Amino acid sequence: MSVPIRPLHDRVLIKRIEEPEQIRGGIVIPDTAKEKPQQGEVLAVGEGKYDKDGKRIPLDVKPGDRVLFGKYSGTEVRIDDEEYLIMREDEILGVFTAAAQTKSAGR
């Protein structure tokens, strides 16, 4: 997948991961009432920010990581009819491990 933009410094480009729709009791929730997912896949990362000595600090996340972020984190951008999030690495709450990814995929 080609990435439409390259984040700068300690920023990360994320694509939200939509959870499969679950209908309980026959109630269908309209799209406007649904909360946006707080999980995403890292598509691109910046090169890192500089410390006080001028050395670059690399990021802990890498493209392909599945991450958890806050509800109001990042800035939403729309490029070529696709929605992405750009946020600083410190807004990411955690990175899912391989075991957690398979459990959530198998719901």
Query: What general form does the structure show?
Result: elongated
CATH T-level fold name of the domain at 11-19 and 35-95: 10 Kd Chaperonin, Protein Cpn10, Chain O
Q: Determine the mean pLDDT.
A: 80
Topology, number of strands: 8
Describe the sheet with the most strands: 6 strands, antiparallel
Number of helices: 1
Strand order, main sheet: write it out.
Answer: 6-7-1-2-5-8
Organism: Pyrinomonas methylaliphatogenes
Subunit structure: Heptamer of 7 subunits arranged in a ring. Interacts with the chaperonin GroEL.
InterPro entries: Chaperonin_GroES (IPR020818), Chaperonin_GroES_sf (IPR037124), Chaprnonin_Cpn10_CS (IPR018369), GroES-like_sf (IPR011032)
Protein name: Co-chaperonin GroES
Q: Can you describe what's shown?
A:
With 107 residues, the protein is mainly beta. It has a domain at 11-19 and 35-95: 10 Kd Chaperonin, Protein Cpn10, Chain O (Roll). The protein contains one helix and eight strands; from the N terminus they run ββββββββα. The protein has one helix spanning 98-105; strands at residues 11-16, 39-45, 49-50, 56-57, 66-69, 75-79, 82-88, 92-95. The two termini are 26 Å apart. The model has no long low-confidence stretch (mean pLDDT 80).
Quick recap:
Helix content is 7%, strand content 35%. It is mainly β and 107 residues long. Heptamer of 7 subunits arranged in a ring. Interacts with the chaperonin GroEL.
Main attributes?
107 residues; mainly beta; 10 Kd Chaperonin, Protein Cpn10, Chain O; six-stranded antiparallel beta sheet; two-stranded antiparallel ribbon; 1 helix; 7% helix; elongated; Chaperonin_GroES_sf; metal ion binding; protein folding chaperone; cytoplasm
